[in-house]
């Protein structure tokens, strides 16, 4: 069976990372930008490893230069995501790629994204919320304007603050200032950790940044006491198995710790991260979880309920989306 039609909640995507390669190629052509080196012979994104992935990602982002580009991107991404049964999606967006961290520019980019999200919601029935994101390898200072953008635009669409990028750049405490800013404004928090780092990176992220969700978090598997802390604090993991397999954070689907995490009692959810980069979709993730671990409709329903409970949205949205997850009578 195909799991395409199951209504899904997806918490961990990067808006620019969802850009289909053809979309980025089209923008590059319009603007006369030569980024041919980022594609393989089949037209897909080409990268060797995680650091190279980040370089290719940033090269693709150089084609996204205006609010209108982000409006078109948002619409293209939501059309593709909705086609895989996703009814609620959260996406990381970085002010660094939307006007270089400038607040006035960010507001213009944001307005364009909200415009597209509203149109997609009316046409396709998919709800999108944004998580403003600092880029870790740009350093702690660069994360401060990103957090300021989150604080100044927190509301109906901007519902969270987070940090992505090269995890091994510094320690979590180095980024505490921006997370403190966001927390003091009442903004829900998540942070990539334990994608590449071990248990100590996850533990420090929880303790120093005060997040309620962790992006990936798979590195926690090696520390039973940390798993107990994650369970006790009800921290939810945004697990992206296909991403981890392609980037070689794990040895393969068989070796992925998502089952062990779930069996240990951790709240796990599943997302695609940057689907075209990893040749994945939410349907493909569910298919692989089914084939590799035997997960079926009941597992997916429970997981989507976990994801919705952890979503950074308002309660009206949560209640509305909950109805979409109910099995058809
Ligand atoms: N930005 C986009 N995808 C990412 C990932 N998998 N890890 C860290 N930063 C990212
Ligand atoms: Zn990610």
Please describe what this structure looks like.
The chain is of the alpha/beta class. It has 2 domains: 8-19 and 66-325, Metal-dependent hydrolases (TIM Barrel, Alpha-Beta Barrel); 20-63, no CATH class. It contains 13 helices and 8 strands. The strands form 2 sheets. Strands 1-2-3-4 form a 4-stranded parallel beta sheet, sandwiched between helices. Helix 3 packs parallel to helix 4 (103-124), helix 5 (140-153) packs parallel to helix 6 and helix 12 packs antiparallel against helix 13. The two termini are 20 Å apart.
Classify the oligomer: single chain
C-alpha termini separation: 20 Å
Taken from the alpha-carbon principal axes, the silhouette is globular
Low-pLDDT segments, ≥5 res: none
Which percent range describes the beta-strand content? 5-15%
CATH architecture of the largest domain: Alpha-Beta Barrel
CATH topology of the largest domain: TIM Barrel
The CATH homologous superfamily of the largest domain is called Metal-dependent hydrolases
Mean pLDDT equals: 97
Number of helices: 13
- Major sheet, described briefly? 4 strands, parallel
Topology, number of strands: 8
Strand order of the largest sheet: 1-2-3-4
What hetero molecules are in the model?
adenine, zinc ion
Give short descriptive properties of this protein.
329 residues, alpha/beta, TIM Barrel, 2 domains, 4-stranded parallel sheet, 13 helices, globular, binds adenine, binds zinc ion
